[in-house]
Amino acid sequence: QQPVQSPQAVILREGEDAVINCSSSKALYSVHWYRQKHGEAPVFLMILLKGGEQKGHDKISASFNEKKQQSSLYLTASQLSYSGTYFCGTGTPGTASKLTFGTGTRLQVTL
Amino acid sequence: NAGVTQTPKFQVLKTGQSMTLQCAQDMNHEYMSWYRQDPGMGLRLIHYSVGAGITDQGEVPNGYNVSRSTTEDFPLRLLSAAPSQTSVYFCASSQGARANVLTFGAGSRLTVL
């Protein structure tokens, strides 16, 4: 079953912050975050393993709450280049590269 | 390194025709997979392989066949194309099956009339 992402879409002004959530009905082993620009392939942002770790990548960070089976992606001081569709992908032990992706969150950053 | 290479980029088929989408990677990755992407549905796993000679089904395998005779290549075959298979197809690979980063190909846009 696909993880559920929220919101489905968000529009920001440059410099504003956003949070994208990813919830799973199954126990999580790992969560991957990818960004896809229009007409391009998804590109890896970060991976989180169970343990509640928070990882960062420039002004993008993420958390992983194993108990709640949730992950959140935090985008601070957004830039125009952050525009795109964000996908979370969940993995299971043994074949964690076999990811089940959410339906995506479309983010648009405007001037 | 070329990474993950998919061909063709675009293809139009008639219902009932067969074709093969090619995927090749030059990173010596063990794990390879095929996803399809449809509007509003995200990426859905069709088939995957954890090594040469080993393949398994994903969420939406019906109508598709795969094989993995070498580490580098993972072709996806449509035996009898249907309009429901109109989609963008992505091949992805990773170094191992355990929590590793997926590298995606550029995608193949398929239209079935």
Notes on the structure:
The complex is a heterodimer of chains A (111) and B (113). Helices cover 0% and strands 53% of the residues of chain A. By secondary structure, chain A is an all-beta fold. In chain A, the strands form two sheets. In chain A, strands 2, 4, 5, 9, 10 and 11 form a six-stranded mixed beta sheet that branches. Chain A is globular and about 45 Å long. The mean pLDDT of chain A is 89. Chain B contains no helices and eleven strands. The A-B interface holds A 2, 29-30, 32, 34, 40-44, 47, 49, 87, 89, 91, 94-104 and B 31, 33, 35, 40-45, 48, 50, 58-59, 90, 94, 96-107.
Jot down its keywords.
heterodimer, A: 111 residues, mainly beta, 11 strands, 0% helix, globular, B: 113 residues, seven-stranded mixed sheet, four-stranded antiparallel sheet
What overall geometry of chain A do the principal axes of the alpha carbons give? globular
The helix content of chain A, as a percent range, equals: under 10%
Terminal Cα span of chain B = 36 Å
Mean pLDDT of chain A: 89
Overall pLDDT score of chain B: 93
- Total helices of chain A: the number is 0
Largest sheet of chain B: 7 strands, mixed
Output the structural class of chain A.
Answer: mainly beta
Sketch the major β-sheet of chain A.
Answer: 6 strands, mixed
Please count the beta strands of chain B (DSSP E, at least 2 residues each).
11
* Low-pLDDT segments, ≥5 res of chain A: none
- From the N-terminal CA to the C-terminal CA of chain A, the straight-line distance is 37 Å
Please specify the SSE layout and strand pairing:
The complex is a heterodimer of chains A (111) and B (113).
Chain A: E1 4-6, E2 9-13, E3 18-23, E4 30-36, E5 43-49, E6 55-57, E7 60-65, E8 70-75, E9 84-91, E10 100-101, E11 105-110
Chain B: E1 4-7, E2 10-13, E3 19-25, E4 31-38, E5 42-51, E6 54-57, E7 64-66, E8 76-78, E9 87-94, E10 103-104, E11 108-112
Parallel strand pairs in B: 2-11
Antiparallel strand pairs in B: 1-3, 3-8, 4-5, 4-9, 5-6, 7-8, 9-10, 9-11
